[in-house]
Design a protein that fits this description.
It is a single chain. The protein has six helices and ten strands, in the order αααβββαβββαβαβββ. The protein has 225 residues and is of the alpha+beta class. A hairpin with a 2-residue loop joins strand 5 and strand 6. The protein starts with a helix and ends with a strand.
């Protein structure tokens, strides 16, 4: 139903907001509830609306687009999507032992590892939990550096230039209770899990990144030239 789609596209129904009930929409547009129901189902299939049990139907949040063949920071992806990025540091921990959350690459074995966890926001909405592991002796400034903005910018200011990545992959996971609380989603909601080992322009490891991203608010674009 084009009128309902137009209302979403024009901003009459805001992202994250609940749309009127089927009866209210039928009255607004002068059509049957069956027509409205079919229109809502179609828009849900296209990802423009999302139903929440017992709460109603809501307009999907705008998604941040990130090209997976291009290395960009979360801040860059946000700005490119017309959103304002921000971040909150949840923890900075100098690990006494090799990280147990994953099998670390050789560069993180037998060295002291700095684990920094951050929560990333776009326009004030939580989008991603970032869990990065750094070789501390090489990047000691990160223990005190302000990280409420772009990590890549902080690295550049300290002479570390991004070169590429390796062993990157994306999985689909369900949000745990702890993740759901931070990301303001429901337990079991879909998340992207993005793993990558980031390298500098000399091929040396900068960090191992483990990111849990709200699938409803993020989109990976893949293009082949």
């Amino acid at each position: 139903m084009q009128s309902l789609r137009t209302a979403i596209d024009s901003g009459e129904f805001q992202p994250g907001g609940r749309i009127p009930t089927e009866l209210e929409l039928a009255t607004m547009y002068g059509v049957s509830r069956i027509t409205i129901r079919h229109a809502i189902e179609e828009l849900c299939e296209h990802g423009l609306l999302v139903k929440r049990q017992g709460k109603g139907t809501f307009v999907s949040q705008s998604k941040i687009a990130k090209k997976i063949e291009h290395i960009s920071s979360f801040s860059e992806s946000c700005r490119a999507s017309g959103m304002t990025p921000s971040a909150k540091v949840l923890a900075r921990t100098l690990l006494e032992e090799t990280p147990s959350a994953f099998t670390p690459p050789p560069e993180l074995t037998e060295v002291q590892v700095l684990n920094i966890q951050r929560l990333h926001y776009a326009d004030g909405v939580p989008i991603m939990i970032e869990d990065n592991y750094y070789p501390y002796e090489r990047l000691p400034f990160l223990l005190e550096a302000p990280l409420e903005g772009s990590l890549f910018e902080v690295l550049a200011e300290n002479g570390v230039r991004i070169g590429g990545s390796r062993n990157s992959y994306i999985d689909a996971l369900a949000a745990t209770a702890a993740q759901a609380e931070l990301l303001q989603v429901l337990v079991g909601d879909p998340l992207f899990f993005f793993y990558r080992e980031m390298l500098d322009d000399a091929g040396q490891l900068i960090y191992v990144g483990r990111q849990h991203i709200t699938a409803a608010r993020y989109r990976f674009n893949y293009d082949i030239a």
